[in-house]
Every structure is written in C-alpha cells, then in structure tokens.
Amino acid sequence: MMTSLAPPASLTQNVTPLEAGSHVIAVAWPGGVPALALSDGAVMLGLPGLQRRIDVHGGAGLLVAAGTPDTLVTGGGDGRVCALGPDGEPTMIHHDPKGGWIDAVAASASGHMAWSIGKRVTARDDKGRLRTLDLASTAQGLAWFPKGYRLAIAHYNGASLWFPNTQTPAELLEWKGAHLDAIVSADGRFVVTSMQELALHGWRLASKPTEKVAHMRMSGYPAKSRSFSWSHDGMWLATSGADAVIIWPFQGDGPMGKAPRECGVRRARVTQVAFHPGAYVIAAGYDDGCIMLLRMTDASELVARHATRGSAVTALGWDKTGKHLLFGCEDGAAGLLALPT
Amino acid sequence: MSDKIPVTVLTGYLGAGKTTLLNRILSEPHGKKYAVIVNEFGEIGIDNDLVVGADEEVFEMNNGCICCTVRGDLIRIIDGLMKRKGKFDAIIVETTGLADPAPVAQTFFMDQDVGDRARLDAVVTVADAKWLTERLKDAPEAHNQIAFADVIVLNKTDLVTPAELDAVEATIRAINPAAKLHRTTRCALPIADVLDRNAFDLDRILDIEPDFLEEGHHHHHADEIRSMSFEIRGDVDPDKFMPWIQDLTQIKGGDILRCKGILAFRNEPKRFVFQGVHMILDGDLQRDWRSDETRVSRAVFIGRNLDREEIRKGFFATAA
Predict the structure, then answer these.
(1) Would you identify the CATH topology of the domain B5-193?
(2) Torsion sign, CA atoms A271, A276, A277, A280
(3) Which of A77, A145, B16, B54 is the most exposed place for a label (fewest CB within 10 A)?
(4) What is the pTM of this model?
(5) Residues of B in contact with A61 (CB under 8 A)
(6) A63/chain B closest Cα distance in angstroms
C-alpha cells in the first residue's frame, strides 16, 4: 500500500540562504563576487559566510542599480550615484545638489555610466567626462548599446538614442504611450522598451541610410513586463509579466509576425528572468516566491526555490561562469544556488 | 484590502492653505509616519523624513480612451516607496494649485501595481473662503478640485462675513453636494476628519451628507461644472441599469468627473453601490437593506455639459 512518489526534480538542496534583510533591488557579480543591492540603502557583498553590509545611500534608500562584470552602480533617494567594486569601497560618482531621486542607472562593460533624475540624463564616459541631455519628459529607463558609445532612453511617447560624446542631437524613435525600460540587443540592431500599456515595443534600426526603421509590437501581457534577458547568442529575449516566461525570437528580422515561445507556465506571475550565460536555460522568478530553471530545448524544469508566501522574487543573476545563480526577494530573503558539477 | 497603504490626495488652489494643512497633519502627535509626495520639492518647509518631489507628469494611456490619463510620476514614486515597506504608514500626495485631480485618482484604478499595494483614501480639497468665488470664475482647475473632493476644507473663514461664508458654501454645494465640508481657520480641524476617510471604499461611499439630494439653485453656464442627483422610490432593474450606466460613462465619461450611487436591485436583498471617475466604474453588492430602511435607488453625477433631462430619463427608465 505504501507508495512513495519520486521527489520532484529539485535543486533546493544546492541553495545557500542569505539574509539580506531588506527588499532586494538588484543582484550583480562585480569581479565575480556576489552583491545584493538593497532598498534600505546598503549593498551586501561577499560569498556566503564572508558577507558584509556596506552602507551606500544611508536612510534615503537605494532605488536603482545596474551591474557590469567589474562594478555595481547604484542610484539612491539621496541624489547620489555610486560605484562599488569587489573590494567593497563605494566611489561616489555623482551627487545631485538638490538631492532628487535617481530614477534610472545604466552601466556598460566598457566603463560608461548613465543616470537620470527627472527629465535630465547624465552620461559619464570611462575617463569621467560628463555630458547631459534634457528631454521633454522623464527618462524612465536607460540602456547602453554594446560598446558604450550610444545610450537608449525610454520616455513618454517613445525612445531617444543619444551619442553623448558627439554634438549630434539625439535621435527620436516615436511611439505613442509611456515607455518604461530600455533594452538594446547585443548586436545593437534592436531597441526594445517595456510600456505602461502592458506591451513591449521594439524598433529594428536602419543599418544603412536607405533603410527605414521597422516597428515591433509585442503585446498580450497581463501585467507590466519589467525584467528582460537576452540569450547568450542574442537570438532570444526572455521577458516577465505573464504566468510563463515569454521568449521573443530575434533571429533575422526580429519577432514581427512570429509567435513568442512560452515556458515555465505556473499559476503565478513571472517577475524576474535571467538567461544562462552559455546555454538555452532560463532562471525564472515568480511573484509567489518560486524560482525555476527552465530548459528551452525540451521544456524540462527544475525547482530552485519553492513558493514562499510574501517573498516575491525581485532580482536574479548568473555569474560569468554560469555555475552560480544569485537571487533576492521583496521580503529581504536571498540565496545563492550552486549548480551541481 | 486592509494591508494596502492609504493615500490621501491634497488639492486646492494656490494660497488656499494646503501646506498649512499638511504641516498640521505631520505635526500632530498621532504616532504615525507619513511619506509625503510634494510638487515643489525643497521650496516649502516640510518637517518630515520621507519627502519626495513629484513633477506632475500626466500620461495619456495609449488605449484609445481619451480620458484615461494617469500620473506617471506617482506610479514611479509609489513603486519606489513600496520597496521600503515599514518605513511609513500612509502616503500624502500634495498637488499644485493647477493640477487636475482626475489623473491622480485614476492612477489608483488604472495602474495594477499601484492598485495592488495602495488605495486612494480620499481627495481633500482646501478652499479659500475669501477668494474661491473669484477663482471659480477664472480657473477651471479650481472647479475640478471642488468637484472631485470627498472632503472640502473651507479655510480662512475669519476673513469673510457670515453671509459671505454661507454664499461660498452654497456655491460649493452647487458643484459638489456629496463631499464632507468643514469650515476652518488656519486649517484647524481634527486630523480624523481628513485622514482615514475610506471615501473610495464602496462600503462607505454613500455615507453622504443629509442634503445629498438638495441641489443649489444657480444659473448654470453651459461649461460650468454642476451636480445632479436623482432618486427612484423603489427598485431598479440591473439588466437595464448596468448597460445604461456603462454606455453613459463610455459616451459622456469625458464630462462626468465623479458619479456615485446606492441602488436597490430587484429581488436583491443587498444594496448595490457604485462609483466612478470619468470612464472608470467600480460597483459591488454591499450589506443587506435593513428592515427599517426604505428601498430607494439614488445616484449623483458631477460634471460639465451634462444634459440633466437626458440623464434623468435614462436613470428613471431603469426602474423595475
């Protein structure tokens, strides 16, 4: 009579829990060291057991963060932009004299940074030179093109593409509606924004002057899509905002007229996505706290974290090697998954 | 519902006393912590840790509905504040004297992320007893702010005669008969009259003034905001009422600022309560009609360019 069910394929034993203690805004791996950017203004840095908390923005809180292979760049409610390397010494990059909220930050692997306060965007190149751009509406999202010379800015009624180190005026990509996050493909051919209207909008940029910019409308999300990740080969864009990970094909001319792939369907909403840096595997975090690893090729699934009440996943990130996944949640829970080798 | 953060919206024309009221709320020994969203960041002295500057950015939603506007800055700020749960108990949004309250209110119904975590408690409008009548002549925003209010603080009453005060109150009542009205000097009133009102909670919505159905008898200009209320002595037919109210708010939603009502549906022991902001409608069955209550169906509409006779006929045609 006794039947024992085989346990579901699970990696939960491979997770080391971390106590972040505050809503996790973002995760990063500066110099290969796990870093959690926290809403209470601190960054928790270090391998499990060796972590320390570094107060970066104090009581004003940490609002936005962006990671590169070397640095974690953070923006706070104190009008400061700071950069933090694996040594844990924060460098103040900028301090707005009026102390406004930093609305968005972006950092390129080549050392270029950008941030925005309201309608003003500031870009800082790797030599520390600052350039500013004033927009007609608030800059909601920023993303560097691959080499870090050009910045995509999402705002009301479109996106602007800006070369900060030239005198050329920013190029406006128009599309009616409120654009939130900016995303640029690894080959620089596509710019995608997420929208208040529960859709993504994409532009395929002209590669020669005779070509026209093409529009892509990716809709059908039941909630705002706010997390995105490109596959290692740049062919697929995984997105959050539905009860499955929605993956758009970007081979050739992009997703126009093509259906997206879906994986990891659950009775919960996907809040975070992170493509593995070397395989067609997506880490997906849900609003019920669950984390799954999903293999695109055969739709196989592994549980990395069971659903946990009040602990929606708010940040996910693989290290460079793809052997470790760092995650953080709204209630300050966090963890480090080490894939079995 | 109860764990959503309550948000009070503070409106009023320039100089009416919004900052006075705000500082009064913050300085009372209530033991609560407020996050305050202000429009002129750093320009007025507010003694509070969590003050955030807003830029009153109105987004027109790209969904074909012209009056579905939201405040983009509020969505962003509330999203940021919600990551710091436990740091505050409630949020107060102060708008400029020129702000339209509609996009502020609609943000709480149109944006799911905001609506999931925060609830609009009430729109509180501070009005200057001495200058309101003048402002209503030249400033459409002043009209909207009165029309939208759940609570009106009629301030600076010491600067007018009792007769002038009665006149200005009658003017307010002609625009908005449903709001709670408090006469004050220097915005002195119990904080409980302003905060935790649950004015958008359907359970509380028609906790309406006794003179709810008494309209002011003014000469109305065509574009002036006015209110109209109707009462059917008895039940309405939900199969007639629902399509009618949906059509009306879709077609006339741009001109209807607020609507509210309590209805007796045929064969339904519970009261049906509805409210709307422009085209957004919200309605639900609430408590049972008590045995000592007469089953009546009442509705109020506040807006401009509204054809009273047409709405009256439409409403009465839904009678069961």
Answers:
(1) Rossmann fold (3.40.50)
(2) negative
(3) A145
(4) 0.88
(5) 80, 83-84
(6) 7
